[in-house]
Amino acid sequence: MRRGSLLALVLLVVSCRGATGPADIRVALEAEFELALGQAAEVDGSGLWIEFMAVPHDSRCPPYAVCFWAGDARVDLFVWKEGLPGREGREVELHTNPSIGRAVATFDIYSLQLRSLRPGFRTGENPEYVVTLRVVELSAYYR
Question: Cα–Cα distance between 135 and 43 in angstroms, integer?
């Protein structure tokens, strides 16, 4: 009896996650697009998926403040491609400050580019982050 109740609870939680989180979107290759925290995007015709997982570090300087450095925000994404065995993917870490880390990463034949992160600095405990990304097919440049 307990096992059945636990299973029902787990299924309820999993089904509610999709209902309360941002809806997944479909985006065009080479176009800039925005993702809210927890949202995923499928790149048209590629089978490539990108999910905005977290901003675990944000030390960017607020506007009009006097700071000795610009700071940096780290954006964590999870990227996978349909058709790969077991829906294999990997975590990708991008940075807003190029002197700290890379703002571009590759996955399969694609380049993922971090264009911006809003808000422009950490605001409160749980900021409603929105990341702007662009995906480019690398093989298109070598044809």
Answer: 8
Q: At 7, is the secondary structure helix, strand, or coil?
A: helix
- pTM to 2 decimals? 0.78
Position 12 scores a pLDDT of: 41
Structural domains of the chain, ranges and CATH numbers in brackets: 23-142 (2.60.98)
CB–CB of 117/130 below 8 Å?
yes
- Angle value at C-alpha 20, between 18 and 26, nearest 5 degrees: 55
Divide the 143 residues of the chain into consecutive groups of 10 and give the mean pLDDT of each group: 43 43 89 96 93 94 82 95 75 94 93 93 80 90 55
Q: Of 43, 56, 68, 61, which Cα lies nearest the Cα of 137?
A: 43
d(CA 132, CA 97): 15
